[in-house]
Amino acid sequence: MALTFNHQTNEISNDGVITVGDVAIGGDNSPVWYGSRGLFGGGTTGSIVDTIDYITIDTTGNATDFGDLSRTCAGLAACSNSSRGVFGGGMSGGAEIIQDVIEYVTIASTGNATDFGDLSVGRKFLASCSNGTRGLFAGGMDSSNFDVIDYITIASTGNATDFGNLTSIRRFLAACADSTRGVFGAGYNTAYENTIEYVTISTTGNATDFGNLTTSRAYVSSLSDTTRGVFAGGSSPTSNVIDYITIQTTGNATDFGDLTTARYGLAACSNGSRGVFGGGYTSGRVDVIDYITIQTTGNATDFGDLTASRNLLAACSGT
């Protein structure tokens, strides 16, 4: 683990990153995309909401209100550069209007989201990941499914730019990343998929086949540390499966363990060592948050509860 230096107090702590000013740096001198505070934004309780909750990932306990998105939104996606959390896409309101909106929050504070720009194509049920500098948004749908990947520079604002395409069009997929590679898994087009594919985040171009998940499913969540990606939950049928990959190695996923509650439409984030999964739908919407230690294997453990039961939400984390 690396050290964190607080430039205001001159204190050093060991939580996996070095923080200088507002920039979090990993042990390989790369920006990081995670931190000790996890955010869960948007979703539906039966009605689409604008809620943002937060937790301290290093501890356990119930979520606390953070602020609001600029719109009610479900089926959105989120990523971060450890200090800024970005939410993009989704559907809004009772008419489920497709959104191209990108907005952001400062993770260390609380408050409402601010406009960032627009996606290249408005869509819902997409996935997002980040290498700590660049955020990617991939897949999704409006009246049809997309294979679109677009990208933003998280520390700036502005509209997303075309990156390339997934290997297949699909929605309800999940994404995770390390400092160089973004990975997309699962989803649905005409059938449930076990596809995993990857891109090199600092370049542009189309995705390449990586391998397969242990089961075909959609509405999945994903998180990562600096080496391992984890995919959890989903539907086909409702699943408690957690499986993992080594992001820099291609091949099929391996069984990790099980969630505390089988569910789909959940969201996930990490602090670089612990992964948390929040919300989802089983026989009804749930407020469950559970956690794993990413570098081990085994079943998830109860963490606490969201402020309300909801699914089709998005999560990211930072410092």
Description:
This protein has strands at residues 4-5, 12-13, 18-20, 23-25, 37-41, 51-56, 64-68, 77-80, 84-88, 91-92, 97-98, 101-106, 114-118, 127-130, 134-138, 148-153, 161-165, 174-177, 181-185, 195-200, 208-212, 221-224, 228-232, 241-246, 254-258, 267-270, 274-278, 288-293, 301-305, 314-318. Strand 28 (288-293) and strand 29 form a beta hairpin. The protein contains no helices and 30 strands. It has one domain (4-318): Kelch-type beta propeller (Neuraminidase, 6 Propeller). The strands form nine sheets. The protein has a four-stranded antiparallel beta sheet, with no helix packed on it. Strands 8-9-12-13 form a four-stranded antiparallel beta sheet, with no helix packed on it. It has a four-stranded antiparallel beta sheet with strand order 14-15-16-17, with no helix packed on it.
Highlighted features:
319 residues, mainly beta, Neuraminidase, four-stranded antiparallel sheet, 0% helix, 42% strand, globular
Roughly how many Å is the radius of gyration?
A: 17 Å
**Rough shape?**
globular
How much β-strand is present in the residues?
35-45%
Low-pLDDT sequence parts: 1-15, 18-23
Task: Summarize the main sheet.
Answer: 4 strands, antiparallel
With helices defined by DSSP (H or I, 4 residues minimum), what is the helix count? 0
CATH class: Mainly Beta
Distance between the termini: 16 Å
Average predicted local confidence, pLDDT? 92
Structural class: mainly beta
Number of domains: 1
Helical percentage: under 10%
The CATH topology name reads Neuraminidase
Q: Please list the strands of the largest sheet in the order they lie side by side.
A: 7-6-5-30
CATH-assigned homologous superfamily: Kelch-type beta propeller
Number of beta-strand segments = 30
Order of helices and strands: EEEEEEEEEEEEEEEEEEEEEEEEEEEEEE
Q: Architecture in CATH?
A: 6 Propeller
